Amino acid sequence: MNDGAPHDDGPHRAAPRGGAPDGAPLLSVRDLRVTLRGRGRSTVPAVRGLSFDVHPGEVVALVGESGAGKSLTARAVLGLAPYGAAVTGSVLLGGRELVGAPPSVLRSVRGRRMSLVPQDALTVLSPVHTVGGQIARAVRSVRGTGRAQTWQRAVDALDRVGIPDAARRAHAYPHEFSGGMRQRAVVAMATVNRPDVVFADEPTTALDPVMQARVLELLCGLREETGTAVVLITHDLGVVGGHADRVVVVYAGRHVESGPVDRVLTDPRAPYTAGLLAALPPRDAADRRLPAIAGAPPSPGSLPGGCSFAPRCPLAEARCRADEPAPVVAGEPGRLVSCHRWRDLPDPASSLFAVAP
Ligand SMILES: Nc1ncnc2c1ncn2[C@@H]1O[C@H](COP(=O)(O)OP(=O)(O)OP(=O)(O)O)[C@@H](O)[C@H]1O
Question: Main subcellular localization, coarse class (predicted)?
Fold first, then answer.
């Protein structure tokens, strides 16, 4: 199924890999919908028609508040949607359709072609096996290499993510690693088989700011080293600049705005993006009050009619409450916005949002 939304073209920086012809997206997600089971016989539309592309070696950020459907999107793309969820739309990886593909195909893709650094990454590591042993098992799951070579791959992966003295540390247990080292070990595990795309779901939330920056640099640096593309999932638009090439802003399971990160961050087209940007703390003002978007996102079980952001949007008018906007090209190639009033944003767009009382 395809909603006919304009495609969100992005750059392609690395050599083509993963079966994508030159210039074609490696991963193409179209009209992805994830519908969960609600109470009784009800259904809950948690992801509602998301479309985005990932090109080889590209870093794409999926940004939105808690509950926007970011994690479910990643899980659905990887064939890991929760039990009972209905997934429709299209997920093409190197031209191969994954929605509806048999579990054996999805298993062969995971780890080898696509991998996930999950939100609760620190629980991924088993406390009773060495870190190197767990990474070696991930290698064995996709390759039939010999024991010594497999172990060496695990050590190299730990070395690549900056674990000092990796050959020795590979024999350590997770509790012998600091939180930051464990987080890096999980990144090593997700990247050891050099997948085409890594989904990194809030990979830095448990870390201090210095370690956050290191892990992001590490993940996003993978494209230079291995050509791996990264889908960076975050609620923090602040971490996106400097790390991602393109950003897809999501609200209540729907596309809000997408485009090159430098353009979206400096000149947002959607009121919601403007609100997220207005709420970012400036570097110079520790004590200054920041504007906040009034209200909270709707729960997917009780969405308002029309645009889901309308109840919180200072620009909302009657048509916003009646019709859900579809993505349209927003004045520049490669930029899409799903907002009836994108042409009416003030300059600066952040002035739409007042300082919180
Ligand atoms: N297994 C599940 N069963 C029921 N509801 C779920 C399940 N997983 C997610 N949801 C619901 O689907 C919606 C989207 O969840 P999701 O975890 O994708 O959001 P998110 O944008 O990743 O948020 P966060 O940043 O907090 O992780 C939320 O309302 C959530 O409560």
Answer: membrane
